[in-house]
Each structure stands twice: as structure tokens, then as C-alpha cells.
Amino acid sequence: MTSKTQQTTNEIKNFVLSSYFGDGLRITFGALVPSLILSQFGLLQIGITVSLGALCASIADTPGPITHRRNAMLVTTLVVSIVSLLTGFANISVYALGFIILSFSFLFSMLYVYGNRIASIGTAALLVMTLGIGDIRSITDILLYTAYIAGGGLWYSALSISLNKIMPYRLAQQSLGDCVIEVSNFMRIKAGFYKERMDYDENYKKLLECQVLVNEKQNAVRDLLFKSREIVRESTQQGRFLVIVFVDVMDLFEQIMSTFYSYQTLHKQFDEIGILKQFEVVLLHMSDQLEEVGYALKADIKPQISLRLPREIRDLKLEIEALERGEYGSEFKETGVQALKNIEVNVENIYHRIKKINGHFKDRKARKLTKSQTQSAYFISHEEYDFGLFKENLALKSEIFRHAIRVAVVMLIGFIIAQSYNFLHSNWILLTIMVIMKPAFSLTKERNYHRLIGTIIGAIVGMSILAWVEDGSALFAILLICMLGAYSFQRKNYVVSVLFMTPFILILYDFLGMGSRAIFIERVYDTIIGGSIAYVASHVFLPSWEHQKLKTVLVEMIEVNLAYYHQVTTYYFGQRYDKIPYKIIRKEVYVRSANLASAFQRMFSEPKSKQLSIKEVHKFTVLNHLMSSYVATLALYIMEHTGDIPAMEKLKEIATNSEKLLHESMMILINEQNVINTDMKILSLKHHFKEDDDTLLIVEQFIDLQKVAFDIYKISQKIKI
């Protein structure tokens, strides 16, 4: 019970200190202030319009360098102002409205080709278009409405930029803290492999899902640190501190990723003596320690290093030494004991890296960053806003183009249905379609489910609040809480965001004297109608199934693992270790591993008939994760023993064969005829190496890597997509 209570407490603390909650506070304040101030002068309606403009600007205010955020907010303000103006004039004719809906829905959905930040500008534009439908005004009122929208956008932009000036490192600290906590979760899942009677497939599934999150957090931190000139180029203590911690966290993640031996084999050999349980306990305690580092980063305090960890690691080492001396019997294989020793050394290295990161908190003196720490250009993505990219995607083979057509047609259908039945708030159907429809079917399905559940539960909660709470001040306080919850969870958990948003809307309409029961019924109806249209359209109208683009993802994964393996093995055959090329390819491995895991998750959410070779793809994903982990083990050894590597030329034949196996796997996936090279096989080791600890480790890793490469080769033959 205590552990569950502690876990809940940690989750609450993590959320309150996160960038999600910070975003919620900023958006709530930015949207609420105009309405509150103007309502004091009897101008509540104008205040709500200004607040709408602020909300539109906030949509583009996603985490990233302040220059990118500023430009996105200002462009959003300009675009939504133009869209609100054109929508206002189009309201005079239902045909003009239909044309506006069709063209804007297509145009702004196509912005996905430029990435999520630019796509958010399109989302804001569609939002202001949807809310402006059916609101017939005079020309003067249309111009004033547009001016209020623009004013709201400029107000929010000024607020966000000002907060960044006051706290320039706050967002980077929060994002880095989130990244560290996700790495600690990854280690916690990895610790599960040492548990008895472990479901390996389920744990690998969790591990791969977590790896996707780690990659997202790493990319977010990388953009914030290396695309912000004041952090890397200025000699501030805080900026340098964040960069150094991030670099060490990346190296720590690689240390955690490394795998020395088959978990199944270890359990067969050592479950009876309970030593694997000790590994699990130590890893769990280290993950707790790392989690504390994440909290400390977000709270801007110093973490405390656990005093029990060195003792537990020492006890673990003594147990392995006793096992090696034969105190538990002589039946344990030497290779298994050596594997335990290697894992224990890895555990020690993880502990020392965590300790090193803790040390940075105590000594934040401005220090000179090394060349490898500031070579940011190799590690960050650069957005291209070339119109040629837009034109290239104007074809049915483009997933974004099909999505844009789908959104445009479905939005028009939703508008026709709403006009035909004279719904009180017809634009709610369009709003539901707009926020639910995503390029991939699985994402649309998930959004649809979350919005429906959140709306129904939220509507019941909202009606219960209005039935039981009569005091205006209490209702306003609840409205603030719901508003804060809705905007805090909108990027973290959509169903919770909708659950808060629905009571917020019901209470707001009650304050405006527009009734609540009718609104309750209509919101649920509109959500069901809009969601149903979106779901059916995603399934039957130019659908996008994951298996259609999965082959590219699989080939890219093997390609990067092959490059990673080749890069590392050359260090064992004479090439000098160089950090920059190595870290570039390591980053690509993390990115493509996350892409593969994401693709598998999306495919798993699709209809059974579309889940082609799902078991084989899962096996392929796990094997490639193992491949990366084994290569990481070799890389870690080379980093820690530079200039002290024994002669390994006798392993070159096995290394070359492993590369051939991976290359043949790519050819099988690329080649439609699946022409299989029957000569491919596992080569045996022809040379006997001196059996010292270090040489055994290297030889075993090369042999294990060849086995994994062969398994990838065999499973690639079975994948039919």
C-alpha cells in the first residue's frame, strides 16, 4: 500500500512540476484575463472574442526555442485573423460557407507536411473558422471581430514571450526533467527482465513503448538546448549545466540500453539461488534515484544520493564472487557467471554515471563545454518550409494529401448535416471532426474513443456540479479548475483534457445564461455524430493503413543498425574511436527504433484484417532492439578502454558475416519476389582466444550479435506486407 501511495504522490509531483502544468497555467491566465477585465466594463462578449484569439495563439505555443514559438504565434495570429475575416464575409451565403470549409480544411490539413508546429497553425485556423460559422454580422462588426481576435493573439504572444524573458531556462529545465524521468521509467522496465516468471513479450512491448517516449523527450530537450543560442553560446552557469547534464543523460541511457546476455538463459541457470532478484532490486533503486534527479531538475533543487545503493552493489558483487568460488555448487556454467560479472560492472557504471550527474548540481560553475558537447548542428532537425515540399505531396501516394482530402470532404458532410437538421450549435459537429481526424486511422480511432468517453463523463460531472453547487463564487472556482485541467492535459492525456473541458463549457454557458441541460444533450449528440462520421470516413475513404508504409520503416531500422554495427566494429579492427560520428549514428538508432515501435503500436490498434504479419513484426522489433543493445555494449567497452583493446582481427569474419546477414535481410524486405540467399548461415568461431574477462566479453558479444543478425534474417523472410 505504501508503494502505491508513494507512486501516486510521485506522479502528482511529476505532473505539477512538468511543462504540461506550466502550459496549463499560462494558457488559462492568457485566455481568462481579457474576459475578466473587459467584463468589468460590461464588455464580456468582446472579452470572450479576445480570449478566443489568445487561445488560437496558444495552440502554436508548443515547446521549443523561443524564436520558433514567437514566430509561430505571430503567424498564427495573422492567419486566424484573415480566416475569421473571410469566414465572417462567407456567412452571408451557405454556398460560400461550403466553399470556405472545403478549401480551408484541405489547405490547413496539408500543413502537416511541414511538421507539428506548422500543423498547429492550421489547427488554430480551422478552430476560428469552425466557431465563426453561422455568426452573421455587419461589415463593421466583422472587422471589429477580426481586430479582437488579432488583439487576443498579440496579447497571448506578448505574455508568453515575457514569461520566457523572466524565466529563460524554465522550459528547458522542465523538459530535461521529463526526459530524465522517462529514462528512469525505461530502467524500471528493464529491471523487470530479472524478475522470475517474467512475460518477456509483454515486458519488451512496455520497453519499446517507453523507448518511444524517451526519444520524444530527448528530441524536445535537444531542440530547446541546441536551438537556443543563449543556452549554448552564453557563458551562463545554468545554460552550461543543462547541456552537460543532458549529454550525460544520453550516455547514461546508452549504458542502460546495453544487454550482455540472454535473459531467458540467465533465469534457467540462476533462478534457484535468487541472485537475479538482487539485480532487479538494485536497478529499481537506481531508477528511483534517477527519478529524484528528474524531480530536482524541475523543482530547481539538489537531489540527494542514496546511501544504500553502494552497499547493495557491494553485496551483489560479493554474491557473484561467492558463486565464482563455487560456494553455490559447481554446476553453474562459466559463461553464465561471466555474464553476471559483466552485468554487475554495467550496474556499477550506471551508478557512477548517476552519481556524476548528481555532482553537477553541487558544482554549477560556468565551465567550458567540449567540442563534442557543442556540435549541435549534427544532432538537431532543421525544418524546411519550401513550397516545393507542399507540391511534392499533392499526389494520392502522399498520406498527408489523402488526409487533407478526407478532412475537407468530411467537414463539408458534417456542415451539410448540421445545416439540414438545424442543430443549436451546429459548429460543434465540425469541431469534433476537426480535432478527431488524424492522418493515421489508429490515431483517429484513439482520439474518437477518448473524446466520446471524456465528453460523456465530463457532461455528467458538469451537470452534477450545476445541480448541487449554487454559489457563484464556488462555481467560478470550479470553472477555473476545469479550465486549468483541460489545458494542462491537452498534450499529455486527451481523454482527461476533454473530461475537464466539458464541465468547463457547461458552467461557462450557465454563467452566460444560455442554459445547461440543452447544452449537455447537444454536446453529447454532436460528439457522437461528428465522431461517427470521422471514424467511418477514416475507415473507408482514402484510408491510411500502417502496413502500407511499414516496409520502409523496417528497412530503415535494419539500415541504421547495420551502420551502427559497422561503425562500432571498425573500432575493434584498427579505426580510432571518434565521438562525433558515433553519436550521430547512435542518435539515428534511437530515432528509428522509436519510429518502428510507434508504427507497431499504431498497427496493433488497427482492424485485425489490416494487421499483416503482426507477430512477425513484433519479433522483428524486439530483435532489432536486442541488436542495438548488444552493439551499445561493444561501444561502451571501447569508450571505457580506448587504446587498450586486444587484437580482434580473428573476429572480423564473424563481424562481416553479421553485416551480410543484415544486408540480406534488407534485400528480402525490399525485393518483392523475396529471393532468399540460401548460403547465409551462422559461422563458428575458428580461433581460440585467451580466456581473460575482457576478451571473453568482446567475443561473446560478437557471437551473440551474429545470432541476432541471423534471427533478423530469418524473421524478415516471414514478414509479408
Structure overview:
Residues 74-350 form the Integral membrane protein YccS N-terminal domain. Its main location: membrane. Keywords: Cell membrane, Membrane, Transmembrane, Transmembrane helix. The chain crosses the membrane at residues 37-60, 118-136, 142-163, 404-421, 456-487, 493-512. The chain is mainly α. 76% of the residues lie in helices and 0% in strands. It has 28 helices and no strands. It has helices at 2-16, 19-39, 44-59, 66-90, 94-109, 116-132, 139-166, 170-191, 200-226, 229-232, 237-257, 263-270, 275-299, 308-324, 334-362, 371-374, 387-392, 399-421, 427-436, 441-468, 472-488, 494-511, 517-540, 547-572, 579-604, 614-640, 652-670, 693-718. Helix 5 (94-109) packs antiparallel against helix 18 (399-421) and helix 9 crosses helix 26 (614-640). The protein starts with a helix and ends with a helix. 43% of the residues are buried.
Largest sheet: none
Query: Residue-averaged pLDDT, rounded?
Result: 83
Overall shape: it is: globular
Our count of helices gives 28
Structural class: mainly alpha
What is the gyration radius calculated from CA atoms?
A: 28 Å
Helix and strand pattern: HHHHHHHHHHHHHHHHHHHHHHHHHHHH
Total strand segments = 0
**Uncertain segments:** none
**Percentage of residues in helical conformation:** over 70%
SSE order and pairing:
Blueprint (H helix, E strand, L loop, with lengths): L1 H15 L2 H21 L4 H16 L6 H25 L3 H16 L6 H17 L6 H28 L3 H22 L8 H27 L2 H4 L4 H21 L5 H8 L4 H25 L8 H17 L9 H29 L8 H4 L12 H6 L6 H23 L5 H10 L4 H28 L3 H17 L5 H18 L5 H24 L6 H26 L6 H26 L9 H27 L11 H19 L22 H26 L3
